[in-house]
Structure formats: C-alpha cells, structure tokens
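[job 0412] stage=fold_complex status=start
inputs:
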Amino acid sequence: MTMTGQPIGTSIATPARPSRGATIAGLAQRHGALVVLVLLLVYGAFAFDTFLTFYNLGNLAVQASFLAVVALGMTLVIVSGGIDLSVGSVYALSGVLAAYASQWGLIPGLLLPIAVSALIGLAQGVLIGRFGMAPFIVTLGGLLFARGLLQFLTDEGAKTYLMPADSPLRWLGSGRVLGIGVPVIIVVVLFAVGGLVLQRTQYGMRLFALGGGEESAGLMGVPATRTKIITYVLSGTGAGLAGVLAAAQVGSGVTVVGVGLELNAIAAVVIGGTALTGGRGGVAGTLAGVALLYVIQDLITQTSSVNPNMQTVVSGAVLIVVVVVQTILSRVRR
Amino acid sequence: VTAITWRGNNLLALTRDYGVYAALVVLIVVNLAITPNFLAADNLRTQAVQVVPVLVVALGMALVIGTEGIDLSVGSVMAISAAILPLYLGYGAGLSILLCLLAGAAAGLLSGALVAVVGVQPIVATLALLVGGRGLALVISDGQLKDIRNVTILDLGDGAVAGIPYTVLVALVLVVLVALLVNKTTFGRQLVAVGGNRRAAEFAALPVKRVLLGVYVLSGVLAAIAGILGTARLTASDPSKLGELIELSAITAVVVGGTPLSGGRIRVLGTVGGACLMQLITATLIKNDVPVSVSQMVQAAIIVLAVLLQRRAAR
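[job 0412] stage=fold_complex status=done
writing structure:
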C-alpha cells in the first residue's frame, strides 16, 4: 500500500479547515501536559532551592526513565485502540531474568529478558490480532501469567538473583555519560525513534488508521492482524527493556516491582494527550506526561509539610482534571 | 451445513452460559477424590469466607460491565471504607458503617459523573480513582494499621448463624438483591439496554445518564461493604493492603461467569459461580502443594480460555 499526500494520522488530528477556537482547543489538548509541566518547573524553581538543580533533575530523570520506556510502548498500543495491562508484570519478570542471565555475560543478560518479553507480547498480539479477543482481558491474563512465571522462577519470590558486581550490564542502569544517566539517554533515543516511527512510517500511519476505526482501516487495506501483533510485541519489548534497565540500576532482580506500573503508564499516556479511544496522540505528549507525574511527586516530597500519601491523591486528581478538560476540548473541536 | 453450524454454536453458547457450573462440579468431584477433608464443614466455611470480598465486589462489577463499562476503583474504595470505619466507632458501629457506605456511594458518584455526564471512558475515570483513592485512604488513616475493638464489628467478622458465617450471609443477601435488581426491576432492564446499545437506549428516551450514575454508585457501595466485611474479618483496618488488585479478581469472576465485556448481558449467578470457581481453583492447587505461582498461571489460562469461548459463541 502506498501513501501519498497527507499522512492519515495528521488528517485525523487536524480537520481540513478548523475554526480558530478549534485550533486552540486542539493545541491545548495536545500540549496541555507540557504547559502544566513548565508551570510546575517554574513554581519549583522559585519555591525550593534544591529543585531546579542539575543533581535533582538528573536523578528525577533517571527515576522517570523506566516508566517512560514502558509508556512509549503503551502509547503505540493505545493509539491502535488497544490497552496493555501486562507491562508491569513483564517489567518485573524481565528484571529478574536479566539478573539471572547476567552471570553468563552482557549479551545473555540483555537478550534473554527481552526475548521472553517480546514472546509474551507476541502471544498477546496473536490472541488479540488473530483471534479478535478483547485486549483488556488478554493482557489481564498476561499480567497474571508473567507475575506467576516470575514467582515460579524465584522460588515463590524467596530467591533474589544478583548481578555480578563487575557485570557490564550494570552500566546501563547506573552509568553516566557527560553527567547524564545512561537510562535517560536511552529514553531520549527511543522517543526520537518512536516519534519518527509513529509520524513518518507506514506502520505508524496504519496504527493511527486502526485506532481511528478498524473497519475503515480494513477497507483501506491496513493489515490489522499484523499491525496489532507488531504493536503488542513492541509494547512487551519496551516493558522488558525497562525491566532490564531498572534491574541494572539496583543490581538485582527485585520480584515485587512493577505492581500497578501499567496504570501509571496509562495515566502518563492519557495525560500526554493520547486518546484512549485510539487514533489520536503522540509520543512527545507521553514524555511530558511521565515527567509531569514525577515532578508532582518530587514537589510533594520537597514540601515537607504535606503528607507524602497526598502524592497519589494529587496524581489521581491531575488525571481527572486532564481527562475532563480533554473530553470537553475534543467536543469543542468537533 | 447450516444446521450443523447452528448446533455447534448452540453447544458453544451452552458452554459459555453453563460452563462455569460444569467446571465447578468437575472441580468439586476432583477435590472429593484427591483433597483430604474437602467436605469438612471447616474447610467449606473457610472457602466461603475467603470468597466473600471478591464476590461482593464482583456483583457491582457485573452491573458496571453490563453497561459496557469497567470499574477499576473498587479496591481503593474498599481501602477508603476500611480507613473510615475505625474513625467514628466511638459513636457506634451503625454510624460508622453508614459513613463507609456513604463514602463508597460518593466515590461511585464521582466515577459515574465522569462517565455519564462528562463522557470520560470508564477505564480512565475509575483509574484516576484507583490511583487517588488508595492515597486518600492512607491520608485518612495516616498510613496506620488500626486494630478494631468494637464488639459489633468483631462479631460481624467471626460470628455465625447455624454454622453459616455472618459475612457469607451478607454476601448471599446481596446476591439475591442484585439478581432481583437485574432481572425483575425497570432499572435492571434499562441497565441491560444501555449496555447493549447506548445510542438505541438514548433514542428510546431511557434515562441513560441516571442509569450509569446509579450503576457506578451501586458498585461503589458494594465495594464499601466488601471493605467493611474484609476489615471485620481481619479485625483490623489495613488501608494500605486491603483490596489490592481485587479489581482483577472481580473482573475475572464476572467474565468467567459468562457476562461479556461488551455489555448488554448480566449473569449474576454466573458471577457467583465464577468467583467460587476461581477461589476453588486456587484452594485446590494450594492444598495439593502446587505453588501459588503455578495457580496464578492456571488462572491466566482460564481467563483467556473463557473469553475465547465467549467470542466463538458470539459468532
């Protein structure tokens, strides 16, 4: 299939001749997270001496990078009109596998967890794409399965695999280049690639078309089955890579991590302006969404007078405000 | 050829509708054969008591799923209910329970308003409450585990009538009420109509928004009840752990029980069967020294299989 002229994704995102109000609403919807993020950064800079420092933001970026990698894959899935609940479990499983396989060296430590994660994504993609099953249920099964497998491999969570202290894999998690954490650099590269894939490749266009409407996408000749399978493989792989990076940072495969990670990833994607109904969104917003969640967390930690439990309350409230505003804005645009 | 296909579909539909009961019977027979003391009253009582929170939450979930929605917030609502329960016990158990139920209703009203009035997708609306609700519960309780000393609540947790624990009785009453609501009331009919085809329901001038609001409020109240029952049984309020991931078990029970995620159909008894089946599977595997991890993977396979069956039957 050849595509000429305007890419489908863009044509769905911006109607041919939008009114001015609609344009502003569209801008706000797509870049709302970024605006709030900048405002919070400015507020933080004035309110706390220790906030806008290279040290603090650098650490924050490393902490946020694992969620960012997971959320990147989630963005693709959600743009296609699906959802992937398995990422938190896959993330944890992959970290354990990385720690386990790192005893044989760098390559097995990277390949084993990522291959297993991709395989789980493949199985889910086949059930969703080929058998037409609901993504929610299939990936709920994936969530349970991956967590079960993880518990099985770790003797019901009793065994912790450590990475050898001299394992080169550790550098991936805790190394720095020019003072910037390696995971952060990986995130930047992955998001650049992800943005290009989504906006400039045939696969990306098919993804938007699929999310916009599966039937019409099929009529346009989009191979729905294949596109979906690829998407869930990518999401699984992303979760796997994030798990490897996290395990590399702490130097061991922690069995209890990743519970609820899928929800944070979904929240970041939605806050970033990607519509859960599919067919609309982008990776830049997701990155802003992830950053927003972590900046809120940091600002609340810095404000010592506030109960730290308020952090999730604020995150939930932000999510509500964002989706309400987005829903209203998307009505204005119509 | 048509006749054969039709019979094939019929068989699939039968499996979808009654498969959960068949699986339950098979599992019970297997247990009679291999699990020592399976029929002992103690064991049966333990199984029944353990399934109560999931079952109560699943009843609300079945209603929500019937409207083509989903409620991820139930575990956090349980936690909020658990956090509120000990606060006003000095004024009596009745008032405390009432406040818990009100909190559950308020949480449901929030999700319901987001879904019905604003038009936010159910999964996002309730996700926000899942994230924020647990934090709110911890703020209310200051993250502390509090022992419950109120006699009424403690009695609710471990008392029994004719050998049947109070918590199980409460669950049974709720099952009957929800079944009546779905099958015998106007609200029940409207609910199924909204789930089957929302636009058609709107054109038919059904009060779609009110139905959706009502459904999420009911789910919130049922989750609050589950929170009270769970706290009574624990004899302590534990907002940081109570109800964690229960939304997944509840969704599983509903789906395995034959209620399709696509809405328009609610099987209350099937949901009871689904909850009992999942409980019994876990118990059977654990009692026979199969590790929890394997039972989790078996559960995953059952969920996927059940839905695959539903898809086939729907065709």
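[job 0412] summary: The longest strand of chain B covers residues 146-147.
[job 0412] exit 0
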